[in-house]
Amino acid sequence: MILARTKLQCRECKKEYESSFRYVCDECFGPLDVKYDFPQISAQTFAGREKTYWRYFEMLPIEDKTNIISIGAGMTPLVRAENLGKELGLDKLYIKNDSVNPTFSFKDRPAGVAVSKARELGLSAVGCASTGNLASATAAHAARGGFPCHVFAPGDLEMAKITQALSYGANYIAINGTYDDANRIAAQVGDSRGIGIVNINLRSHYVEGSKTLAYEVAEQLDWQIPDHLVVPVGSGAMLNAICKGFEELEQIGLTSDVSGMHMNAAQPRGCAPVVDAFQNNSKVIPVEHPDTVAKSLAIGDPGDGRYVLKRLAQYNGYADMANDSEILDAILLLARTEGIFTEPAGGVSVSVLKKLVEQGKIARDDTVVCYITGNGLKATESIMSVLPKPEIMQADIGKISAVVK
Ligand SMILES: *Cc1c(COP(=O)(O)O)cnc(C)c1O
Ligand SMILES: [Zn+2]
User: Fold this and answer.
1) pLDDT tens per residue across span 79-104
2) What is the C-alpha separation between 343 and 288, in angstroms, rounded?
């Protein structure tokens, strides 16, 4: 492509490459990031456009609009959470509710960009390694784009996530092992068969989709930068991409200096390699057997873990973890205060937010954005475990009146 707007650049040694089907640096094996030649952009450029993340087309790595495969994801609500704020002691709390995307998680953002890129590169099949949500997001975009889709996932995922991906027509390969096992197999199959594995060999483009979580929040806050962000971490790709997104907004002059924001990471106790490293001031040590109710965050060997640590240092952030019972409590707290029903990954965000406020790391008058990345309907088994099961009663007004107090 002669007039390409984008290049790939090694995150480590900064070597540049033409945009192509590659994702690691030849020289140093570092990951490749997309680098742009941005046109003149102002807030007016985006105002009035379609309410999906493709409104930011100029800032996404697709050269030709006809290659876009969209199922209408993005531009999800940024909710001013007054009730939850009151409960936690925050005056300006916002929830970025990404649980209401078309496949009910934020993964529609990276998957949509990667599957579109697969079309642009002329690939004939796509796939992913998934902790559950990416399977559905990739499969839905593949269905829309007419691609076969191969999903590699650990065998113990929530039934709703498997049902959803199968319904979109994915070839679902359930592996007797962890996410890291599934990831390794997906990488081998992708390379040997030339399949576009969205989060592996298309990763450079994939992560670009998640940047729109920064663009939207900034636009929804009238281009102001929040003081604190709380982001759940699995592989760490989303947290990194959100930082890149804010930096690009500053670069094109849409927002002021972003260096004052605080980027905070949240992980479940049963799989918290990045939080452990942050708290012990050490390298990321992989967790061999993740054990957590937050299955979408059960990535023992996070690909972008060390970059998350860099981001936390760069943006004066903290990292904390929540155990299963804290996660489930936080799901109910969010549901009962704001009417937003999230899966355990969102419970991790809310629970860690609560801790950071209690520890005095976030102040009452800070503007805070808490990212809710997946929907509660995807994990009803685990959430039901802490709810009372309704007793089935006869349709007798006398008996029923007694329980309506
Ligand atoms: C995948 C996922 C995450 C973590 O994203 P990473 O980019 O892997 O850090 C968070 N929340 C939900 C609901 C997810 O599906
Ligand atoms: Zn390099």
Assistant:
1) 999 999 999 999 999 999 999 999 99
2) 23
- HEC string for 168-212: CCCEEEEECCCHHHHHHHHHHHHHHHCCEECCCCCHHHHHHHHCH
Q: What is the pLDDT of residue 1?
A: 44
For atom 3 of ligand 1, which residue has the closest CA?
234
pLDDT score for 405: 85
Tokens of 329: 């409590």
Q: Which atom of ligand 1 is nearest to the CA of 98?
A: 13
Q: What predicted TM-score, i.e. pTM, was given to this entire model?
A: 0.97
Contacts of 242 (CB under 8 A, 6+ apart): 210, 211, 213, 214, 229, 231, 263, 371
**Cα dihedral across residues 63, 258, 273, 378: positive or negative:** negative
Ligand 1 in contact with 374 (CB < 6 A)?
yes
Q: Indicate if ligand 1 lies below 6 Å from the C-beta of 105.
A: yes
Residue with tokens 């087309």: 57
Q: Which atom of ligand 1 is nearest to the CA of 231?
A: 10
Please work out, in degrees rounded to the nearest 5, the angle formed at the alpha carbon of residue 319 by the alpha carbons of 323 and 132: 55
**Tens digits of per-residue pLDDT, 342-364?**
999 999 999 999 999 999 999 99
C-alpha–C-alpha distance, residues 109 and 209, integer Å:
5
Which residues are CB-contacts of 210 (< 8 A; sequence separation ≥ 6)?
106, 109, 110, 237, 238, 241, 242, 245
Q: How far is the CA of 3 from the centre of ligand 1 (A)?
A: 34
| Cα distance between residue 250 and residue 223, in whole Å | 10
Q: Residue 146: name the closest of 117, 126, 132 by CA.
A: 126
Residues 266/348, Cβ–Cβ less than 8 Å = yes
